[in-house]
Specification:
Helix content: over 70%
Number of domains: 1
Radius of gyration: 22 Å
Largest sheet: none
Number of helices: 9
Distance between the termini: 84 Å
Shape: globular
């Protein structure tokens, strides 16, 4: 009779998540590059946005190349992707930097709120065949976090504007001017679009049979994986800002 197999217990010194260090280092590098581009501003920031936009489009084309069954379908999907991704890149490039920060913060708050709420509460899935980890609780948590962020952004902007007045900066004046309720509602609605962008990319990856859009960023996948929720929010915010500037 064969001896029972020996099961070796994992060493106490072994890291529980060997990919965590890689993910953290990659995140630090991404934040450093993005931060330097934002600090430099002007042409450097535009070049950074253009480079990321091009990288996302290349990853998108690779995904749809695995999905399309004929050249006509491939062409239509590539054109649609060029409009979608290019529009988002242009919107980010033309919007003022404070608005860009507000948009980035809203998407980050959406993802963070959705992640922690979904992990804590669980519950029914939104579309398990597309994204098995996304729950309704997570969506509502992301909407709440985005609403709070939008309200804080509007309140901060109102406070800075009040500093220009004769009485100086005043929180009371800022509260009178700022419509925090509408800001929170707008933030929550934008969170839905951010999650829709996430679902869209998840749908593309599932159809293409891949886990990540690419392996460009160690531990994080591709550029498309990082900005999938940002694209629709950038389109909405950037287009709305451009429309107000044009007097529409």
């Amino acid at each position: 009779m064969d001896a029972d197999p020996v099961v070796t217990a994992p060493s106490a010194d072994a890291p529980r998540n060997p990919d965590l260090r890689v993910r953290v280092l990659s995140a630090v590098v991404m934040l450093l590059i993005a931060g330097l581009a934002f600090w430099a501003g002007g042409l450097w920031l535009d070049l950074f946005i253009a480079a990321v936009t091009l990288g996302v489009f290349v990853e998108y084309v690779r995904l749809v190349g695995k999905i399309a069954t004929d050249p006509a379908r491939l062409s239509s999907m590539v054109i649609a992707g060029a409009i979608y991704i290019g529009w988002a890149g242009l919107a980010l490039a033309v919007m003022p930097e404070p608005l860009m920060l507000a948009v980035l913060g809203l998407v980050i708050c959406t993802d963070t709120g959705a992640y922690f709420t979904g992990r804590s509460l669980g519950g029914p899935k939104i579309a398990p065949r597309i994204s098995p980890s996304k729950t309704w609780a997570g969506l509502f948590g992301g909407m709440a976090a985005a609403g709070i962020w939008a309200a804080l952004v509007v309140l901060s902007a109102s406070y800075l504007v009040s500093a220009i007045g004769p009485t100086g900066a005043s929180l009371a004046s800022a509260l009178e001017v700022a419509n925090l309720g509408m800001a929170a509602i707008a933030g929550a609605i934008l969170a839905i679009f951010a999650q829709a962008g996430d679902f869209y990319e998840s749908w593309l990856k599932r159809r293409a049979g891949v886990k990540d859009s690419s392996r460009l960023i160690p531990g994080h996948g591709g550029l498309f994986d990082r900005v999938d929720g940002l694209l629709p929010v950038a389109i909405i915010a950037g287009t709305a800002w451009a429309a107000t500037q044009a007097g529409i």
